[in-house]
Predict the 3D structure of the following.
Amino acid sequence: MSALRDDRRADTDRFYGLLDELAERLGGPRLLRDCTQDTGWPQYGVEFFLENGQVRAGEDRLRVVRVGSHALRATSQATFWSRLAQHRGPVGGAKAGVGNHRGSIFRQHVGSALLQTGHWPAEVAESWGQKEVSPPQRVAEYPLEKAVSEHIATMPLLWLEVPDREQRESIRANSIALLSQRTGGIHRTTTGWLGLCAKKREGGNLWTLEQRPRRRPLRFVFS
């Protein structure tokens, strides 16, 4: 068991070493609140979100709290920026900040956590996450959608350009398998993390549902 733990530690250290190299190459992480389509994004990529207050064990550097991708089906036309914009929500117009959690599971998770930590109308708690709602129910959700947008927009983001669909899925799945505390991940949650309140993902350390390994992590390189 000790040998397995040592291997996990070594793989995790290598992962973050590669991530630190990526951050240097990119000029540091970005905040979605400061970004537009013209900021400069690859057409296809993998997202690595960090979160203020969530640090690596024994260090003061931030840990990854979400790994995601897009266009994992051959028929998908989604670009990397369009996916990020779904997470963040619009920044201008009459509905500035009013994103759509039905188009982003990330937003759904953050919203479900906020529902547990604030005073929100019962009807919003009932409709949140439901596939079909009435126009009045959707309007009632706007304040929570804005709160979700504000939270995600301040989370540091690193990204890796990955044109190949199968490789994007491999990097995403292997990263989750490596980092998840449900599968023995090294860097666990820091006290008070909002994600601990998210519905359907209690006990994990990532903003994702899928935290069961499907293959041996870490067998990929950021290149």
Q: What stands out?
A: The two ends are 32 Å apart (CA to CA).
